[in-house]
Amino acid sequence: MVAISNAFAAVEFSTVSRHYGDVRAVDNVSISIAEGEFFSMLGPSGSGKTTCLRLIAGFEQPSIGSIKIFGKEAAGTPPYEREVNTVFQDYALFPHMNVLDNVAYGLRVKGIAKPECYKLAEQALEQVALAEYGQRRPSELSGGQRQRVALARALVNKPRVLLLDEPLGALDLKLREQMQLELKTLHKKLGITFIYVTHDQSEALSMSDRVAVFNRGKIEQVDTPRNLYMQPKTSFVADFVGTSNVIKSVLAQQLTGQNQPFSIRPEHINLDTHQLNHMQNDTIKVAGEVVDIQYHGATSKIEVRVGNQMLFIVLSNTELSEPELPKISQKLNLYWSKSRMVMLENQAI
Amino acid sequence: MQSTTITADTSKPFGRKLSNTLYRKSNLFLFLLLTPPLLWFGVVYLGSLFALLWQSFYTFDSFSMAVSNDLTLENYHSLFDATNLDIILRTLSMAIAVTLACACMAFPIAYYMTRYGSRAEKGLFYIAVMLPMWASYIVKTYAWTVILSQQGILYWCINHLGLSNALNHVLQIPAIGGNTLATSNLGRFIVFTYIWLPFMILPIQAALERVPTNLLQASADLGAKPAQTFRRVLLPLVFPGIVAGSIFTFSLTLGDYIIPQLIGPSGLYIGTMVYTMQGSVGNMPLAAAFTVVPITLIFIYLSLAKRAGAFDAL
Fold first, then answer.
1. pTM over 0.95
2. CATH class of this structure's domain A244-343
3. Of the candidates A73, A38, A71, A41, which has an alpha carbon nearest to the alpha carbon of residue A241?
């Protein structure tokens, strides 16, 4: 995590809401994003993360609250007067211009001399390894190449904050992983603030300094990826970030004696006790019945019914051979260490 | 048992067999589909057009008032006579003025429809734009003669607004004015613009509808002020729609023969010239030669538009 200097935060939301009629797309959100931070906004579709990004870009104005960009009130200023640039979800490249003109656009409209614009645009294209593609039309490029052009078009303006709206959503898995790496490298090299919107939790965890988890227009938790995963505060976060078993209060009461829900990661549940090098009274034991087994290559996912709840566990296929795996409708005991449990805020699930 | 289920072709009804055959032989299907429109366009439409154009090379004997099959370029020569050239220029300048006015008026209307209108508002707009087209165009033109007459509502409004002096000044401008609005080029221009405006709004609206909003947002995001976004992104992307609309307004004005007869000063238009030549005079070859003029003008217009990059965004 990047330390917050005593200078202004790059972007600061104070009790921001955005209403559409009765719908609260963004509901009383306050966040402070430090300069140079790689900050992700994670959440399911319709959770308000994209609206937050659009509020920073200036495409939307807040109904209530204040948004400061480097200490300057941004609410009310149009997008073209903000020091931020956006990489759009579907790239939004201008179809009637070639790639070089697309990249040079931001400089041209600012009135910079034509040769200078094209020089900088060519450098920006080089930076994303598309130097020879300047004369092509966006329609002649592949998805990944368009993505890079969109990146170059934003970065050529030297923004202090780069907004990325699910930029890798349309790419296939391999390309997405490659681009994740490139974005991270680019972020380190440029040292500017990246604000990254995604619904893909693994993407958010692997790239970000901090992640804000959105649900129904509100922020559930803002934390480092490690803390989000290890210490989720709410059942929503526990469920959405990574895969987790959220034990509801009824079952929790039986297991812990406390009427408080908790979460336990599937990889922390064992089928026997000998992997738990802890004292006996630290271990929770619960009986269940195997309902389903899914093969996932390196691991297998086993779904187990415990009482009226489903838990799943993840077993390594390299450690267990096929006959060693449980069978469907087999009865078995699950064990986990109390120290692995994360108590959640008591709320309706 | 099994074989019967597979080879039971004979038991199928005729309709099923026919559709299966057409499905298998897609070329036959395509041929059947295309034959009627190709016959219509190829023979009825283009055929008659070429027959007309062919007649433009026939000879007209002005003594006997008879047309003979001797081929000649005389008709095309006479297009460049001072009086005929005058007709062409008069029509052309009106067509350009009407097209420009329609484009300027249609764009904001179409823009509002596309960007701000809700579904219901859009529907209302469509009806409002199309509604005038439900009435006969001759009726509307006659209505305009009443509106523009000195006892008409327009004069009444202008008088009550105290603008009659201003109107008189405008009517004294040589190329535009006339004795009254109804006999001035200004009046004719107003009526042309009114009548053809829907033909400009609809294609522009269709073109605007195809411009994704996020392109305009991207432009603003990159620092372009609204005027720059309009000039560099919106206009180039909508230009094919404007060209499509202007082909309508341009060619409809070039070919019209009703409005010039009913409203505005005397002096023939291409349309009225063709009407006179093929009707009362019976000089079909010259009438045919005159019809080539709008075709040529539109061809020139399209190639200019193409050179200006109007179709790059398609």
1. no
2. mainly beta
3. A41
